[in-house]
Amino acid sequence: xxxxxxxxxxxxxxxxxxxxxxxxxxxxxxxxxxxxxxxxxxxxxxxxxxxxxxxxxxxxxxxxxxxxxxxxxxxxxxxxxxxxxxxxxxxxxxxxxxxxxxxxxxxxxxxxxxxxxxxxxxxxxxxxxxxxxxxxxxxxxxxxxxxxxxxxxxxxxxxxxxxxxxxxxxxxxxxxxxxxxxxxxxxxxxxxxxxxxxxxxxxxxxxxxxxxxxxxxxxxxxxxxxxxxxxxxxxxxxxxxxxxxxxxxxxxxxxxxxxxxxxxxxxxxxxxxxxxxxxxxxxxxxxxxxxxxxxxxxxxxxxxxxxxxxxxxxxxxxxxxxxxxxxxxxxxxxxxxxxxxxxxxxx
Length: 347
Known about the structure:
By secondary structure, this protein is α+β, with helices and mostly antiparallel strands. The chain has helices spanning 43-60, 73-80, 125-130, 181-217, 264-272, 320-323, 327-330; strands at 5-7, 16-27, 33-34, 64-70, 87-90, 95-98, 101-103, 106-111, 115-120, 144-150, 154-162, 221-226, 262-263, 283-285, 288-290, 293-297, 310-318, 338-345.
């Protein structure tokens, strides 16, 4: 059984908070170009890209949206304001390569509810040394860490992330030096592993920041974004709490489950008691689907915990532009599906 928009049968309160994560795939306003000067949208292409996003928001009306691959944050903010997103945050800027040409897109956060604070999430030098890395290690893309004031939930911490991709971190080819097939294969293997190390280290830093913040505030926590890997992979093992053997003294007054981050899909399937659902893919490479985009939730949203205050009432994967695209609507949409969940208060 395949689910792209399934709804649970249990009763909900009137409160419903909808979260969404959207990889916008090179969202850049002309005459800006992404990566190469030839990558400039025409006005018609730029219109199609914005219209696609408008249609999704008009149909599903998320309350809080995490965006990735944003080059033109001001254009995105201007698009969202008339749609009811009064609050918008961005904490980084894309890197210029040349005049009008940029790389290193950023993440942003849009909300219908107040964003009390928004900061870039930096890597901890001390943790980097413990991981056997240089103390100047940094995320490939700076995560956004925000605290929002949400109805019924109060102050809630939201993390927007775009972890390192699986593309190999290749060494620069030296001028005048020809690469053999052997050199190319070795570079591909080592570059892929370097990407995995970077992505896994980013996951460690992110989870450490969440744990520290939870131990100090007990705010509910939400992580949204493009993880560029399977959440159950060894590379992202930092998100798996089941293997922990000890906790620090300042956490000892709360159970370990308090610090667990849960995959919203798992919470949804558990709530509707239907383990036969096939999880929809959020990205396709050579027709092979994978799940790269996630919404993780802290234990306050885990209905199995008697102390929880909310639960996942609905899970939706918007993927029509990937599996059944319409040329006029979807050509300049995204190469990722949109993941959204609806949170309901527990009865």
